Amino acid sequence: MIDSGGRRVSRVHADAPATGVVRLHDQAFEILARRIRAGAVPAGTKLLESWVAADFGISRAPARQALAALEKAGLAMRSVGRGYVVTGLADAVDGSAPATEPVQLLQSASWQSIYAEIETSIVARTAFASWHVVEAEIAKHYRVSRTVARDVVARLNQRGIIRKDERSHWYAPALTPDHVTELYEMRWTLEPLALDKAAPSLPPELVRVALQSIEEAISRAETLTGSDLDALEAELHVEILGYCGQQTLVEALRSYQSLLVAHSFLYRWLPPLYPSEPFLPEHLVVLQALNKGRRKGAVAALRAHLQASLARALHRIEAVAAEFEPEPLPYLRPY
């Protein structure tokens, strides 16, 4: 936007503070609204506080406010149980740009506006090879500052998507059988521990709603979309485990949960490999045990689920490598 003095200023909502700083929930709302208008987040997609918070690197409070703003704008509605469901485009959005107008964001939010696309692009290509991630080329490709590109790289590292090698170069390791096995071994070591610590702090209503969600999903398993499967994975592996109460453990979990990002891509791009997703009844056993207060049973069921998931993950990755040949990207070079 250009003010009356000819100076470029960032777009803010009418209720933004007088300082002109766009608040986190406003930034998240703007980006989500833009994605919905562009069709990147299609109608029917379920949005959870935990997903929005993880996607934007913010806490649940501004994520909750952003979702409420989407509902007010007519872009989403409350889902049965919890979360929101994207309804599609609205005729008018309070204080927002029309679909054809790019949203002007503060630099502090710029990395969020490009992060999801970069993450998906990298994960999609790790089914084929390892890649050197070039920070300067990210900045050039997306026409952002090196600071913004550095923020993207830091987030990719936090999510376990990329690592540093012995020469301090960033790279995304290929999803080879050995690497996937390593990730799953760490997951079935750390996640049951996190669930054991989370169980005493879990709100009973949270467990009941998660149980209802999985039961409903099983009843219509053949019609579930990739977004539905993502949301169900996040309910157990992100939201529930997030109650473990140990920040160090939560950070360790994130480092090995890059497979959740990989599955997000695989669920969306592969045709269903099974008539009904095998993880659904496995999640059901975990949640039933939690709902009945059987902590040890829930922990054992989660470990069994992750161990059983390894072979299926390898099958999916092999399938996508056979079906797709991604186009080259300037910020990814063979490693």
Give a nutshell description of this structure:
The chain has 335 residues and is mostly helical. Helix content is 58%, strand content 6%. The protein has three domains: 1-105, Orthogonal Bundle (Arc Repressor Mutant, subunit A); 115-172 and 326-334, Orthogonal Bundle (Arc Repressor Mutant, subunit A); 177-323, Four Helix Bundle (Hemerythrin (Met), subunit A) (Up-down Bundle), CATH 1.20.120.530.
Topology overview:
Blueprint lengths: L23 H15 L7 E2 L1 H8 L3 H13 L3 E3 L5 E3 L20 H19 L5 E3 L1 H8 L3 H13 L4 E2 L5 E3 L4 H22 L5 H16 L6 H15 L6 H10 L1 H12 L9 H13 L3 H29 L8 E3 L1
Antiparallel strand pairs: 1-3, 2-3, 4-6, 4-7, 5-6
Structural write-up:
The chain is mainly α. Helix content is 58%, strand content 6%. A hairpin with a 5-residue loop joins β5 (163-164) and β6. The longest helix has 29 residues, at 295-323. α5 packs across α6 (146-158), α7 packs antiparallel against α10 and α9 (226-240) runs antiparallel to α11 (258-269). It folds into 3 domains: 1-105, Arc Repressor Mutant, subunit A, CATH 1.10.10.10; 115-172 and 326-334, Winged helix-like DNA-binding domain superfamily/Winged helix DNA-binding domain (Arc Repressor Mutant, subunit A); 177-323, Four Helix Bundle (Hemerythrin (Met), subunit A), CATH 1.20.120.530. The strands form 2 sheets. Strands 5-6-4-7 form a 4-stranded antiparallel β-sheet. The chain has a 3-stranded antiparallel β-sheet with strand order 1-3-2. The chain contains 13 helices and 7 strands.
